[in-house]
## 1
Amino acid sequence: MLGTTIILAFRAINRHKLRSFLTTLGIIIGVAAVVTMVTLGNGATAAVREQISSLGANVLQLRPGQGFGRGGGGPRPPAFKPADLTAIENQLTGVRAVAPLVQSSGTAIYEGSNWSTTVYGTTASYFEVQSWKSDTGRLFMPEEEEAGKPVCIIGNTVRTNLFQGSDPVGKRLRIKGVSCQVIGALATRGQGGFGDQDDVVVMPIKFVQRRFTGDRDISQIMIAVDDAYDTSTVQASLEELMRDRRKVKPGAEDNFNVFDTKQISDTLTGTTTILTQIVAAVAAISLLVGGIGIMNIMLVSVTERTREIGIRLAIGAVAREVLMQFLVEAIVLSCLGGLIGLLLALAASVAIAPLMQVPFIFDVRVNVIAFLFSAAIGVVFGYFPARRAAALNPIDALRHE
Amino acid sequence: MAADPIISLRGVTKVYGSGPTAFQALKGIDLDIQQGDFVAVMGPSGSGKSTTMNILGCLDVPSDGEFLFKGRHVETLDRDQRALLRRRYLGFVFQGFNLLSRTTALENVELPLLYRGEDRKARHEAGMAALDKVGLKDWWDHTPAELSGGQQQRVAIARALVTQPAVLLADEPTGNLDSERSLEIMELLRGLNRDVGITVIMVTHEPDMAAYARTLVHFKDGHVERIEEGVSA
């Protein structure tokens, strides 16, 4: 019975190839649009997540003041001291690595070339916190950190601008008027959320404090949380520790802030996900329009094939069989449209993803849902015309011109 | 007249519409048709013969009265039950052929078997056999547009007899054909009636065609005016 109706449906579609194609065009475009949008959106989300994770996964950044854009008047909140660093290392559980950071900026000069860049004063732990490996050379030795020796590790941007192709390790460059030896060069990180991460010269913190900033202040502490611990728990105990150490009165606001990269990552990926959903919803409207197109053509088809329906009823088709025939026809059409749409979406996504610089991610779930949805459209929009066909009176239908 | 008739109408009326605009197409028909008979239904237009054919074809129901088909009360059956009755026992031939367009002769002939749920092989064999009976075996893959009127009507007859129905209902089967084709069709119908024993009920205006029938039923103003039996051999 169902087999028969499917045969009949394919025969009817085959008899009207052009019309069938035009009927399904709406579904084809709708499915292709939705699936392409969702696929590219997922790629964009993955790209954002990738960029954020380049900032370091599960890293807490501790800074003085009350976060971005606040502070305004009042005394400047005190910077952190080396003792704060020790306290965090010794008293906080769930910490994988801790690194202090002071920043300065200046021009680096090597032979004829000069390059304006950022100078980071930190320890070897910084690279551990950032999961950042050196490409060539080595990181700081403990004695270099302890003594604040004039050594530096350069980012890839500095490397290409000062040394072009040549090996920088062992060379001496001048930065802010002092000479230092390059002991390593870092692997490329690319564009992060906050500009070019490779445009940096990293030196022992004691050297930077002594020669550039002139005090022992630490402007930022970076804490890598152990994977076995929950970032927010560690963050809470960190805040408690710092309130205690910085003598913040109960009820008073923190004079420091903790910045959780995971939180930022979640927020940003959440934003791209919502954007994807909005675009997909707009595309889904075209799918709905496609469904109405199917209903439209099926209604015309029922009117045009009134006599055929009359013949079928006279021959002995029961109402349900006629209903099924038209319903199955609509479903077959919309499923075919769905399939073609999926293939188009695949081709479009593969072609567009590299242009948008996002990875192509084939999501089986999205494709299956889009296909089932197109089938459902066939059922919903095919039912009304099919019922109209089944309800025809055979005598009138046979007389229909 | 000893056997029970295959078809029996008793006091059948048919009223279209209601109230003052109501039109009584049939005003009480009594008619018996024996198994194996060849009946020609004649009468001027509006005399009620088409309405009677619709009722006999189980396409329509009487407003009042009884319609017994093989002893079953058709007037009590619902739409789908009547469809199943048509599928099982009836074959239709129409004035306008009513073949599916863009569909081969064989597919047209196979159509009733599809609804009977017969498999592909059985459909094909029975379809070809039916086409052979009407002399169109070699034309099986032609669509109606590629066939002459007479050939189309023969395909329609093949479609009607492919299920080996008990009764063949033909509504002016030669109405759209020239006299030569018409005679071919009539010969075909007479042959089927004589050789296979199908009961044929045919509406016609033309005495030449009616001459092929054994029983003539004359309609007038919604009544059976008279019945002539044993007209031809």
## 2
Amino acid sequence: MSFMITLAHFCEVHGPSMVICTQNVHSGEPLESYYGAKVPPSSVCKSCAFIVPQESTSLRTKSGNQIYISTQHPSSQPRYAALRQTIMRVFTIESNHDMSKPLSFGDSKNGYSVSLGFKLIDDTARGSDRRYFLIFTCDSEQKLYENYSVILDQLTAMVNFITSRSMHILDNRRKNENNNETYMRRGSRMPKNRSIMDLLQDDNFFVKLHLWASSLLAQL
Amino acid sequence: MLGNLLRKKEFCQQDPALEPQVPPPAYAAADAHYSGTQLYGPGNTVPVASFRLSDKSSLCRLVVVQDSGIRSKQTLFDSALSLRPGVAEVSSPAYLNKSFHHPTSELSALMFGYYGILLNETISTTKLHYLPPLAAMPASMLVTRLFSVNSSFRLCESGHGDPDWAPKPCVYTRDAPVCDETPTRLAFGLIVPVARDRNAHEILTNHWPEIAGHLEATQNLIVAKLRALASPSRQSAGSKPAFPPGCLQKEPDLVHSLHLFVRSLVFLIETPRLYVPLKHNDSTLCRWAVAVATWLELKDGRHPSLSLLPTPIQESQSTSPSHACSPVVGLKFLATLLTLILPYRCEVVDGPLNYHTRRAVRVVLVTGNPVVSQKLVLILAGIFGYDRYTFSRTLEQEDTDTDSEPRPTASKPIPIQRAAYQDDSSSESMSPEMTFSSGSAKGWEIPSKATPIISNSPKFTEFAKPERQPVTLVRRASSYASLQNLSTSYGSQSTTLSSSWRNRLHFGSFMERWRSGVGESVDVTPPPAAEYDEYPWKSVSSGGANLPRLSRDLGSLDLDKEKPVVRTTYEIPSVGERVDLAQQVMAADVDFEPVDMAGGANVLDIAPLAVVIPRPQVLPLMTGYIDQYRPEFSLQACPVHYNLEGQICESMRDDCARLGPRASSRTFVINLKQREVKLMEMQDCADTESAETTPRLTITRLFAPYKRDLSEKLAHDVEQCDAVLNRILYLIKSRSENDKIRALVEQLIH
């Protein structure tokens, strides 16, 4: 059974792109095939980059006899292709009347997924917000729906955490900035690429997201 | 009976409190004398569904939409439109009640996506959406299946060859057109009303394999209908098929398909599933053991007096020296049944269809009498789900707490009991006429034909002993007569040899006693005096003094004091605090350390988080008595139906279609009336990919009364199983033997 938990972002420069992807390693498979390589700087910008301490390319957690690895992209080509299709779908094709509701779809080529979208308000972004999706992908339809409630519950909790933290940061900033010059105005150098890490003011955001994803996968 | 009435009243009072306007569900009538405590977990009456889809089934809807270009979608079928009677369809434009149903354009936007551009034009896609609330339907979900057809109308498996990423659909599916020439994209959507709570989606996601099966069947049906529509027009091969709007509107099969889907979902949601936690709950174990004992005595006739019957497999004392319960005569129905079915235990618990092994197994009890089937269902479900049903630790704790309270009726092993049963085998000195004469004093006529067998029987002397425990006495009294006319399930018109002797010996029905069950609770046990009156061996006086002990022993099984397990019809909600992983992870600092890797990979090791997310326990698809055969359940009891075999056969064909090539489906049909076990097997032996292979059906009669041609191995296994059951029968008298019983159950399983 293969699972992937992905944070996807609609980048203003690169379009729908994956920022971090956590996978479970099958027993007996070489770990090396899962580790990520250095992504060329041209293909990522700050808003879609996977930024972790010590310039690492992979995060690894051993939980019991299971190993979970997070990278920016899955190193396996078919997985990458499937995940890309899924990300394209959630950002550009699938419709959902309520952003807070999950989107579930699947086929026998790209796998089966549950995704939950959210927006973070950012004055420096085009349209003043940045769109993200947390996507859970599985290669077994049965397994996904068996665990649907647990997955959805944790996805919702994570999205709630991220959005409320972002709102909290914005509120604080507004309280501190009693500057009328910025009222109803955009910043001078627009648009600006900002990572979700900056928006949430957490340098270890991706490390924590990896830990969250591997803890969730360990429960399945 | 009083207890039954009270319980019934309680149930009736409970029901309207939940949903005042709702009549009791269909299964309630059959379940009125079911004690919920037996089949539905400690302290439970028959669980009632918190969300009743059956009340809202009119809001379920099927829509078939054709994609004919960007922003151009045509509705081919809409069940919401066909519901208007008495209006000439030609004259009236399609009308949709907007307070009940969503506009089709809104649905098609969800089904096809915003822009109508599809990344993948051929493969079938399944989607699940939440729909916006309507005035008459506050919450609903849309299940979509997108698929493509081309002019050949043939589908094949989409090729996915990569071992690294080969997604597997729930059911076997042919989801891509045979060749990629300009297919038409079609979609159908099923709208299902759901509850408004956070986990409302569970009614769909928990039953996903079943829903996926229906999606596949509906898709095949639509493709077949479209093919029939297209063939007269003789489209040239290779052209993109297009269908006029509303062309499927008058198809009754599509309405029927929706009806089947809703019905299946209603059964899955609203039928209470069994919960018999033998392994973790003492009182459940006791009830189970009592049910086994009762079955052995009443149904299999495990009584010395039965030696007057021709026994199917004569078991002399010498063949089973391992245990003391040697005068084992009568049928070995239960032992044979368990021997045959237990190898399929895991598959039954995993649900009727196992998609990994491509095998399907069902156990169907056919009976006219829900009460008798209840006992067998309890026995089977307990042993099937022995290591699957878990019991929450907190509840277990409280459970044992109540047990250890210093009550006068506290459970203490009654010392004489074990000796009592050992006496059974060694009571050769007992005079037989004591019992026999009392029998004739009652006016019971022993048929003359049976007499020689009595006199010939070597075990006749091993008969009742005065010092026997009252529990046993009562049951023996019951068994003595009820063996003759046990239940309607041993119908009188049966011409089999097995029942002919019963017809000649006509006694009053013992259904009442059977129903009240020996071990259920004190209040349903008949008063000792009445019980004693009916006791045929009047000369036995010592039993009377012991009778109060009966209630004491059963009092320890009294369930009214037990804390009920919180459950719904199909799951036990998770116990404990909700775990918010995000909060835990994000609030804390994380530890990480770099790892030196060969090959230049830059890896950080992150310490794992020790956390367990409590999860609800979805109960296996095993249920008790339902009023008709339902293929959704792997264990069920249902009434006799003239076309039952046809129905089973049909569902097995469906199984094979869902499981794909080389699938097999088995159904054990246990007919309690004829007391036979049949195995219906269907094997999809076709290796070819052509769709028109019909699986072959074989029916084997595995057990029938006096069927002697058991294979040696099977006979041996039956003997072993029977020995274990007999030991359980004698262990139930003491509550302290629970561990031994559990050990025996485990022995049975393995």
